[in-house]
Amino acid sequence: MMIGAIIGKELTEIRRDGRALGLLGIVGLLLVLGLTTGLATENAREREVLQAQADDSAVFLEQGEKNPHSAAHFSRMAHKPVAPLASFDPGVSSYMGQVIWLEAHSRNPAMFRAAEDAPELSRLENFSIAGVLTLILPLLVVLMGYGSIAGERERGTLRQLVGSGASPIHLLLGKFIVIAGVAFAVLAAAVAISTSFSLLSLSESGFSGGDLVLRGLSLLFVYGLYIVCLTAVTLLVSMLVAEARTALLLLLGIWVVTVVGLPRLSASIAEQVYPSPDSATFWEDTRASLQANRPPSESEDYVAVEREVIERALGRELRVDELDDLEINRGALRLEVSEVIDQEAFNAAYAELFANYEKQKNLRRMLSVLSPTIALQHLSRAYSGTDIGAHEHFSLEAERQRNDIVRAMNEDMMLNGAGESFGYLSPPEFWETVPEFDYRPPSVAAAWSESARDLTILLFWGLAAIAAMFWFGANRTRV
Fold first, then answer.
1. Are 191 and 34 in contact, with CB atoms under 8 Å apart?
2. Could you tell me the CA-to-CA distances from 404 to 103, 408, 410, 420 in Å, in that order?
3. pTM to 2 decimals?
């Protein structure tokens, strides 16, 4: 009963507070703007991806008679589908590239980065719902809560409330429910609308409706934890200082440091400690690794790979003395052996690259002990399907597709072009047998698994803030 009265009182004060209502309106407008620009941007990208896939398939199938090795250099494109919740949090999708050229002899990085192609006036493409919730929602919580205890103490009403039978814990709980409830209502509306629009726009992205709903619920949970932490810290500061003005200044300072400053500083520190290699250095090191990894053509290792390639093409084991007498295209055999040998070096180079990204993320994760915003950003991108882990999954699947395509072409030339060397031409109907790239993005369960440490850190922040608020409320509240 007492808590209900306190909740009613707090809601009345918020309705009368023009500043809180004004900021609430601004947050709503920013969320609408973020949703509109996000949906427009991602829908345009999705249309581009689908059209590019159709064009790429049509050109490939209409090659006519052609040498398969030439076609392997012409090859195919692997187009990264747009994550349905990229409109909520675009993450790193604009910076990691959208298309991978599946070329023979080379594992290429993703190209066509939206951030590079965007004109100056399209900066709003980086404006997202996640950005508004992360940066602006804390200000709403601060504005609603900075005077909750300190303001009551200044006006003398805190003593009256306690004297009327309201315990400090009841006061804190009632105020916490109202402030967190208003912020959570804004959050729930933003996530629900974004998820609903994404469900309506599902096409050939590979995401299922059920997976998308689980992603939306996951986002609701972690941003809810963020609100819990923000509200508890706000009330704790308001309880510990003497004046509401002091609480406001202190909370704004905390916002600047933990929400604005530390996330950006952590990214800069991570890049300095574990710098990303530039393109020239990466390819120079990769070429050196390729050369070092190639055995002489007469070595036992090379002959063993030859036997493996032929047996895979024939679908059977070779007899001991059969290798030298087979009627096959030896040029195509050398090409496929080269692909198999080089694959190990390419995989190692890219594994090292993504391992460096993971080191950067782990360092930022360590710094999230000082700022829950960093952990929230990691979780938001993971559940939206727009983090580096999602891009690495796409890169690995594209590489598997490249290996399948090149293998199919080399085996056709090897088995059907005996004695013709590079003069062999595949018939037009052969191109229809080359596998299409059927990409299936990782599920939200994979995101949960990969981001478990970030979730643990955010949970720790929420529980610690709640515990501190109620402990100080029970033992240190001054009336």
1. no
2. 11, 6, 10, 23
3. 0.86
